[in-house]
Amino acid sequence: MWLQKSNLGSHSALALMFLVIGACAHHDDVRPSTTGVHLVVTKGEEREVAYRSARAQAECYCDEFDKLPFIVSESTAFVGEGGEKEYLRQKRLANAAKVGGTAGAIFMPSKGLRAASGIATVAGQSGDAYLGEQYRIRVKFRCK
Hints:
With about 140 residues, this protein is α+β, with helices and mostly antiparallel strands. Helices cover about 55% and strands about 20% of the residues.
């Protein structure tokens, strides 16, 4: 019967699951160097998001050599047009539209108001997507 599991099959599936979970997702943005100081450049909607992505890619890259990444230097820059203050203001407005629209869609008494709230949610999500990833981080690291 195809629903029955053998002991070997269940152990193999468990081992495969741990192998997949433990594997690195990617390190597409890592630029290896013959000098041993490698570079990863990523972008993100927020400084911290960009940094976490760069750090994860450095870890993944070094993991291939059974080593750990050690940061040599890092720099973050706002690369969007219109200035960082304006970008942050627009992000707050987009987030407010998403939150307000979602709450309105849940709690509004009439279908018309719920529909309008749904439109506000979509507008907030669209605004967020339009603003995109405006922070760029450059991280130089060594694998040790």
